[in-house]
Design a protein that fits this description.
The protein has helices at residues 45-51, 57-72, 77-98, 117-121, 315-318, and strands spanning 2-5, 8-13, 25-29, 34-36, 130-134, 137-138, 144-147, 154-159, 163-164, 168-180, 193-199, 221-227, 242-247, 261-265, 277-284, 289-295, 305-310, 324-332, 339-351. It contains five helices and 19 strands. A hairpin with a 5-residue loop joins strand 6 and strand 7 (144-147). Helices cover 15% and strands 34% of the residues. The protein folds into two domains: 2-108, C8orf32 fold, CATH 3.10.620.30; 117-351, Jelly Rolls (Sandwich), CATH 2.60.120. Strands 5, 8, 9, 11, 12, 13, 14 and 18 form an eight-stranded antiparallel beta sheet that branches. The chain has a seven-stranded antiparallel beta sheet with strand order 6-7-19-10-15-16-17. Strands 1-2-3-4 form a four-stranded antiparallel beta sheet. The chain is α+β, with helices and mostly antiparallel strands.
């Protein structure tokens, strides 16, 4: 099967665990590279290898590397280095993925639209256990509304089960977000934004509002903010549409002020367009690396584009030595406002 999904083509010959078929090859193509992603779709790599008889493994790798080289040869050096580092991380992720050899009965149900892998991994048959805080609310369709399009709102939503970072090699979180005005349309004149937060402050931790996006003032935290308003006076924001990773060394509290940023980007789509945008946050604990990727469609293809990679994110230090953390979101409005909606899509934790 060959499917064109966004900017990535997936060539799949059979499919493995959960889809009721036996997978042999799965190769992903994009404008910049070609990658064998078969390991992402199997839990028994040695068995799959026995069926991969169409081409020698080393020759296949060389062929895909040659395609990648040709596609990237005219790219700027900086872009090639970004792609090179991303490929290294993805190769490690794939290696870790196929090592998870135990497949639960719940994972043999087959692919279902809107399935959440974290829920499966935890053996839950219902929705994720999410606790809404302050202005946040859970909607009937599983969506979380962090703030309504009203002034001076502050809200948060956390998974009730903590992530044990001491037992985690890597974690991947995927979610959709939509930012709209009172009428459910683009919030071009709205504020302020939301943040994906990793924190050990508590299951209902909530920071300050306005340009602090609901996380400013928290201790023992790391926040990846999706900021839609340029608060130049109070937070020295780089733009009115940026993603930035913020933290502070304990016991100092975290802040949305730009001086607390370890890395940011404004080269992203307009986040307050009123449309659903999808984000993937990959956390490599031992490598102290955090990557943020985006895409603008909800297809099954793995066509996320990396927009921000931040090194030297020492979670153990920033969480003040606490190995367990709550994962979730915060958001706020000020004098200007907007609806800020989140929908969990997928979460995978790779254990040590």
């Amino acid at each position: 099967m060959i499917s064109l999904l966004g900017s990535t083509i997936h060539l799949v010959i059979s499919v493995a665990e959960g889809w009721g078929k036996k997978l042999n090859y799965c190769v992903a193509f994009s404008a910049d590279e070609a990658v064998d992603v078969t390991k992402r779709y199997t839990r028994n790599w040695q068995e799959v290898l026995k069926r991969r008889v169409l081409v020698d493994e080393e020759k296949l790798k060389q062929f895909l590397d040659q395609i990648t080289h040709e596609r990237q040869k005219n790219l700027p050096e900086e872009r090639r280095e970004i792609l090179k580092e991303r490929r290294k991380r993805e190769e490690k992720e794939l290696d870790d993925a196929f090592k998870r050899t135990v497949v639960k009965d719940s994972e043999r149900m087959g692919r279902q639209t809107g399935s959440i892998e974290w829920r499966t991994a935890r053996g839950e048959s219902g929705n994720l256990d999410i606790q809404a805080v302050a202005s946040a609310s859970r909607e009937n369709d599983g969506m979380i509304r962090l703030t309504t399009a009203d002034p001076d709102q502050v809200g948060a939503a956390y998974c009730s089960e903590q992530l044990d970072l001491s037992q985690t090699n890597a974690a991947v979180f995927e979610f959709g977000f939509r930012i709209t005005n009172k009428q459910g349309e683009a919030a071009w004149d709205g504020a302020d934004g939301f943040a994906f937060v990793i924190q050990s402050a508590g299951p209902t931790a909530l920071g300050q509002g306005g340009c602090e996006l609901g996380y400013g003032g928290l201790k023992n935290s790391v926040a990846i903010e999706f900021d839609t308003y340029k608060s130049a006076d109070r937070c020295d924001d780089p733009s009115g549409n940026h993603i930035s990773l913020h933290t502070a060394i304990p016991p100092q509290p975290i802040s949305a002020h730009q001086k607390y940023s370890l890395g940011h980007t404004s080269r992203i789509p307009a986040m307050n367009s009123g449309k659903w945008i999808y984000a993937r946050i990959s956390i490599f604990v031992d490598e102290k690396l955090v990557d943020v990727s985006l895409k603008e469609d909800d297809e099954e293809a793995d066509d996320y584009v990396s927009v921000l990679a931040v090194n030297n994110v020492d979670l153990a230090m920033y969480l003040n030595g606490n190995s367990k953390a709550w994962i979730g979101f915060t958001a706020s409005t000020g004098g200007l406002s907007q609806n800020q909606d989140i929908r969990w899509k997928r979460a995978v934790v790779y254990r040590k």
